[in-house]
Amino acid sequence: MTVDVARRPRPKAGGAVFLASLFWRWPGLRTAVLLVPPLAWFVVVYLASLVLLLVTAFWTIDPFTTELVQSWNLDNFLQILQEPTYLRIIGRTVLMAALVTVTDAAIAFPFAYFMARVASRRTQTLLFAAVLLPLWASYLARVYSWILILNHGGVLNWGLTSVGLPAANLAYTDVAVWIVFCYIWLPFMIIPTYSALERVPDSLLEAASDLGARGWRVMRDVVLPLALPGIVAGSIFTFSLTLGDYITPVLIGGGTSFIGNVVYSNIGIANNVPFAAALAMVPIVIMAAYLLIARRLGAFEAL
Amino acid sequence: MKVRALAAVALLMVAACGSSPAPSSNTQKQPPTANMAPQTSIGAGEGALNLIDWGGYVQAQWQTPFEQTTGCKINYKDAGSSDEMVSLMQNGGGGQWDMVSASGDADLRLIYNGSVKPMNPDLIPDWKNFQEQFKSPPFNTINGIHYGISLQWGPNTLIFNTKKFVNPPTSWGAIYDPQYSGLITIPDNAIQIADAALYLSKKDPSLKITDPYELTKPQFDATVALLKQQRPLIKLYWPDISHFETAFSSGDVAIGAGWPIMTTDLKAASQPVNETIPQEGATGWADTWMLATKAPHPNCAYLWTKWVSTPQVQAEQALGYGETPVNTQACAVMESLKPGSCAAFHANAPGSYFTSMKFWKTPISTCDDGSNNCIPYEQWQAAWTTIKG
After folding, report:
1. Residue of A nearest to B182 (CA)
2. Nearest-Cα residue of chain B relative to residue A171
3. B84 and A69 in contact by Cβ < 8 A?
4. pLDDT of residue A113
5. B233 part of contact set with chain A, CB < 8 Å
């Protein structure tokens, strides 16, 4: 274990060289320098804002002047738990998130299966582009286009009446909100499901066939369990995105409130940041529980 | 271990504090800035003016000539809501803001938290030409002290589709009528509770509602109950003008509470639309330019108020925004700019018209009779959330 110092070029004087040799001597230092900026960013931007949110939730505002009163209390949380309206809004939001997730999973699975296991390379690329293309357009433009589709004189009713069916009055309803949520979050379900399905080894499917399993049996007992982590990973996106969104209900819905809308109206209209903070804790708690379950189902291995 | 101990202490502190008492308010007392004597003359402009306004209240059409003649360079911020105005103006405008174009539902809050200070109407030559009702209205004048100069106003009208309603509706009852279920739209705003209270004041005199902004508990509960009954009939709680106009044009809604600008826009788009002020009367909004307690450019602020009160600017703003000027002399200018607009915006309406109008003001716990039985604004907002569910 001798190091041939003589063959090493002699270090020139200068800061860069000094640093280089410092890092060479203590590899741990290099790691630290590399990690500190992103870590600091994470701590300051992510954690600090979350902590601030948590802290604000325990304060209140003077309702008349809307000035922040920094006295510690649980009023905001009690209000959420004791007022049936807020519980109903939370329940409605969770139900909507669950419905959107289930719908997206049902649509995404066959699509992703086709993309991953049936389609040719060329078709696969085309389908990928088709899935991702809407994400390039503005969120608002995509949501607004649904107003033109769903409203009373819109494309949908035009189509229905022209084939002799009664018009559907979907605009400004919760059904419309559900449809639009399913549409905008679908790519977030397709991609992880696709990547999970792509990784299912062909040999397993052949083995299943050799053992006499028919198509549905293979799907149920081999493909689905192996794809489940991918679907659960996708559901994390669809569920959390629906849980927090407030723009689609405002643009498409008729005024029905979801958690995001109440948070928004408390910050933007009522200027009651503490109450909004308390209410914003609800999706965080729900998501924490959801992520714990998802981890058990192996979702993080498919990310 | 240390972290856990800290957390335990924090929890204990929270538990010990418990519920905070609700702050009380009282109109009888003078606002905190009542003793600040307003200036008696307008000096030279300070070269800048920082405004918080409703989008569209500062337009190049009247901003540019103002800046050229006074040298006051305008910086402005469009506010999204009355509450945003209140929060921006906290602490006397913070030494940053000079003026705010506040609406009636925010005025009393701005006055009583000391954000704005008295103004001298004698420095505004056009003030004497204002509609009588807007010289010293209760929403910006307290005990004879003016906390701002009225600017423009507008009624909340009943707008309807003339094909679906061949006979124009005559009562606000139409928007509570199950017969029109799924065709009704109303504003997504807690102050809408006052509209329901106004309707109830005529429909159910036993409630003895005299002022829709001063509701006792039984009156308030009856109003909220009416709005909850109305909830399933509502197609859309409109959040802004464009939502209302889109839903109306597409035929998703056929009747609702809105603003004259919507009728004007929809008529311009050849929609079968008209508006009316029903027999119960109507609520209305009225905006006031108010002077921040710590305004850094008071002379420019007075020059601006003077300028926007002139008939020319009053008429331009009225037509640009679809609202009604408070200066009676603006009517002639409006007619010259757009024939028929003076009558369309009720700018020449008689005094009786204004007495049928209940202008927005902040609901506070002190009623007109001095008792503390009225329901304050925060509870209006909480109730609005429960109404919409």
Report:
1. A169
2. B252
3. no
4. 94
5. no
Under 8 Å between Cβ of A76 and A60: yes
Q: Which residues contact B187 (CB under 8 A, 6 or more apart)?
A: B156, B237, B238, B257, B258
Which residue of chain B comes nearest to A72, CA vs CA? B14
B84 at the A interface (CB within 8 A)?
yes
User: Looking at beta carbons, which residues of chain B come within 8 Å of A65?
Assistant: 86, 90, 109, 112-113
Map residue B303 onto helix, strand or coil. Answer: helix
Contact B86 A66 (CB under 8 A): yes
Which of B290, B257, B34 minimizes the C-alpha distance to B139?
B290
For residue B90, the distance in angstroms to the closest alpha carbon of chain A comes to 8
What pLDDT is stored for residue B7 in this prediction? 42
pLDDT 10s digits, A245-292: 999 999 899 888 999 999 888 876 667 889 999 999 999 999 999 999
- Of A149-163, A230-244, B82-96, where does the model show the most confidence? A230-244
Determine, for residues A88 and B17 on separate chains, whether the beta-carbon distance falls below 8 Å.
Answer: no
* Cut 0.90: pTM above it: no
Closest CA to A56 of A70, A77, A42: A70
- Asked if B99 and B290 touch (Cβ cutoff 8 Å), the reply is yes
Separation between Cα atoms, residue B186 and residue A255, nearest integer Å: 10
Distance CA B157, CA B360 (A): 14
- Dist CA A191 CA B284 (whole Å): 52
Q: How far is Cα A214 from Cα B110, in angstroms, rounded to an integer?
A: 74
Task: Count CA atoms within 13 Å of residue A159 on its CB side.
Answer: 8
CB contact under 8 A, A66 and B247: no
Residue B83: closest CA among B190, B243, B216, B187 = B190
- Beta carbons of B64 and B294 less than 8 angstroms apart: no
Least CB–CB distance from B81: residue in A69, A169, A268: A268
Note whether B386 contacts A73, CB cutoff 8 Å. Answer: no
| A13 to chain B, closest Cα gap in Å | 47
Predicted confidence at residue A65, as pLDDT, reads 63
pLDDT of residue A303: 54
Closest of B24, B22, B26, B106 to residue B367, by C-alpha: B26
pLDDT value at A46 more than 80: yes
Q: Tokens 């006055």 sit at which residue?
A: B111
Q: Return phi, psi of residue B231, to 5°.
A: -45, -50
CA distance B235 to chain A (A): 6
b/e sequence B365-385, b meaning 16+ C-beta within 10 Å: bbbeeeeeebbbbbbbbbbbb
Q: How far from the centroid of its chain's Cα atoms is residue B366's Cα?
A: 20
One-letter amino acid of A59: W
Inform me whether the C-beta atom of residue B232 falls under 8 Å from chain A C-beta atoms: no
Question: How far apart (Å, rounded) are the C-alpha atoms in residues B318 and B158?
Answer: 20
**Interface membership of B194 toward A (CB under 8 Å):** no
Mind giving me the DSSP string for B361-379? ----SS-TTS-S-BPPHHH
Rounded CA separation B53/B192 (Å): 22
